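FORM 12-B: Structure-to-Sequence Request
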């Protein structure tokens, strides 16, 4: 039975808890992810950001609580059904270096395939659209091992786009990229969000990048949401000190008119000074 509830959010998390053995990684989290917007999860290492992202995609079983997709509990969906609705690119994905770019992107069509079903015109169109949207069409015959870090990350994003999901979850998509490729990658994600209306959920460590690209910014600490809202409301010096343990000054970015964090020093030093 399709038990849908009224909701303006594409994805809603309700009192969700996720555990690893005796350790609670996500603790009674509730969050409404706005449809067609970019939501960024930020917080210190080990605060539960990646676990929450994977739980949204149902890759971690919930100890309690639930995740709703357009009002329907994701626990009621079959694996291929949820894979057609929510795409996830995890941290540091890997594939054989001798695999061709187009072969990897084609893997994004797996949720749409059935046994003995031939490759369809819809599949081919989805592949071409994904490669065109990420600007990698000219790389289709290249081997993955011959690509730069920025090129390879675009290929992985193209694979997720080929799934044609309304919700895209990206876990540290700019990890290991230099500054130029970080901006290229996040500009691409932002453009796909604006032009195609995709709901995007990002995990980012860089607080200034989070404030620059987020429509909704979510601060997490110790498995819980501390606060969620607009970047200009969350980028407060006292809140950053409380969540990240860093003293800072927050100013306005004169180019993008977004808050900019200038770190100063740890508010509670973790290491003894060298004598």
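FORM 12-B RESPONSE
SEQUENCE OUT:
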């Amino acid at each position: 039975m399709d038990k849908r509830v009224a909701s303006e959010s594409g994805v809603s998390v309700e009192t969700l808890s996720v555990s690893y053995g005796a350790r609670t990684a996500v603790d009674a989290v509730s969050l409404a992810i706005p449809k067609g917007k970019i939501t960024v999860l930020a917080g210190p290492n080990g605060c539960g950001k990646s676990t929450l992202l994977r739980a949204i995609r149902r890759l971690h079983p919930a100890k309690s609580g639930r995740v709703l997709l357009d009002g329907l509990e994701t626990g009621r969906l079959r694996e291929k059904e949820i894979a057609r609705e929510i795409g996830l690119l995890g941290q540091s994905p890997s594939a054989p270096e001798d695999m061709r770019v187009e072969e990897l992107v084609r893997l994004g069509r797996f949720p749409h395939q059935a046994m003995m079903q031939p490759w369809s015109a819809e599949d081919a169109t989805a592949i071409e659209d994904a490669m065109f949207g990420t600007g990698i069409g000219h790389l289709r015959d290249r081997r993955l091992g011959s690509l730069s870090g920025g090129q390879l990350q675009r290929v992985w994003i193209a694979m997720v786009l080929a799934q044609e999901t309304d919700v895209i979850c990206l876990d540290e998509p700019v990890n290991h990229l230099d500054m130029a490729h970080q901006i290229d990658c996040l500009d691409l994600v932002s453009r796909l969000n604006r032009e195609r209306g995709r709901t995007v959920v990002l995990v980012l460590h860089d607080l200034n990048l989070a404030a620059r690209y987020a429509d909704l910014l979510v601060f997490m600490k110790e498995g819980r949401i501390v606060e969620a809202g607009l970047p200009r409301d969350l980028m407060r010096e006292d809140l950053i000190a409380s969540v990240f343990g860093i003293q800072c000054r927050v100013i306005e970015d004169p180019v993008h008119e977004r808050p900019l964090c200038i770190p100063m020093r740890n508010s509670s030093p973790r290491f003894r000074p060298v004598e």
